[in-house]
């Protein structure tokens, strides 16, 4: 498979050495050069500088990175910050519950989360290309953000998350949102408003794809 010259060097970030090698083979099949990151990674800012020094053009990143003292953060945090620095990135995981732990605010900056078994050259290349398109404002219908009403339906006892309904997407489906996502609003849970506004990709097909960002009162 011929890859774009733009993705000549692709970093592979995974705390498991064997997984890094396996993903590296998929990168090679894209006609790209895999640059395996052996860690440890202590700072995202320092790692971004390292990528620049290595002339890395894109990053393939696993979700769980904190094991084995490999990194001080997980892949969703790294991937979202790389995207915001206009570095194409794809997040990969072999866990099925990632949608419960990935902040939906970060999901805005992670165009693709792919399962381990789908980490094939074509899938990875398409994910990188989607990032590049979004950097230019070209979103797929399922990813384009729209300002819309968000209705808070339930608050967890721990106050770690709430369940919301997005009428512009589906009036019958409750979506779990971690309260950390809108912490910048400094809301009091004793007087939590029932309605907020946010940028939401209301064209999403499934609730796993839904993200929220730019919350407003």
What does this protein structure show overall?
The protein is an alpha/beta fold and 217 residues long. The chain is built from six helices and ten strands; from the N terminus they run βαβαβαβααβαβββββ. Strands 2-1-3-4-5 form a five-stranded parallel β-sheet, with helices on both faces. Strands 8-7-6-9-10 form a five-stranded antiparallel β-sheet. A hairpin with a 3-residue loop joins strand 7 and strand 8. The protein is globular and about 50 Å long. The termini are far apart.
Ordered list of secondary-structure elements with their pairings:
Layout (H helix, E strand, L loop, with lengths): L8 E5 L3 H12 L4 E5 L6 H10 L4 E5 L12 H10 L4 E5 L4 H4 L2 H4 L5 E3 L5 H15 L10 E10 L5 E6 L3 E9 L16 E6 L11 E5 L1
Parallel strand pairs: 1-2, 1-3, 3-4, 4-5
Antiparallel strand pairs: 6-7, 6-9, 7-8, 9-10
- Tally of separate helices: 6
User: Overall pLDDT, averaged?
Assistant: 91
* Helical fraction: 25-40%
The topology string of helices and strands comes to EHEHEHEHHEHEEEEE
Low-confidence stretches: none
* Rg (CA only): 18 Å
Number of distinct beta strands: 10
How do the strands line up in the largest sheet? 2-1-3-4-5
Bin the strand percentage: 25-35%
- Outline: globular
**Largest sheet properties:** 5 strands, parallel
Structural class: alpha/beta
Ends apart, CA distance between termini: 48 Å
């Amino acid at each position: 498979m011929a890859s774009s010259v733009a993705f000549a060097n692709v970093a592979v970030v995974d705390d498991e050495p064997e997984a890094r090698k396996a993903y590296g083979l998929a990168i090679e099949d894209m006609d790209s050069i895999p640059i395996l990151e052996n860690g440890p990674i202590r700072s995202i800012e320092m790692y971004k500088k390292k990528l620049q020094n290595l002339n890395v053009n894109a990053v393939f990143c696993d979700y769980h990175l904190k094991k084995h003292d490999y990194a001080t953060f997980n892949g969703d945090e790294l991937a979202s910050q790389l995207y915001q620095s206009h570095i194409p990135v794809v997040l990969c995981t072999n866990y099925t519950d990632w949608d419960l732990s990935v902040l939906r605010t970060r999901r805005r900056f992670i165009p693709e989360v792919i399962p381990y078994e789908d980490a094939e050259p074509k899938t990875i290349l398409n994910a990188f290309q989607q990032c590049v398109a979004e950097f230019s404002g070209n979103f797929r219908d399922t990813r384009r953000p729209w300002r819309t009403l968000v209705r808070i339906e339930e608050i967890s006892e721990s106050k770690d998350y709430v369940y919301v309904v997005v009428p512009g997407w589906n009036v019958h489906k409750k979506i779990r949102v971690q309260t950390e996502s809108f912490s910048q609003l400094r809301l009091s849970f004793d007087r939590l408003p029932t309605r907020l506004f946010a940028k939401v990709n209301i064209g999403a097909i499934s609730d796993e794809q839904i993200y929220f960002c730019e919350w407003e009162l």
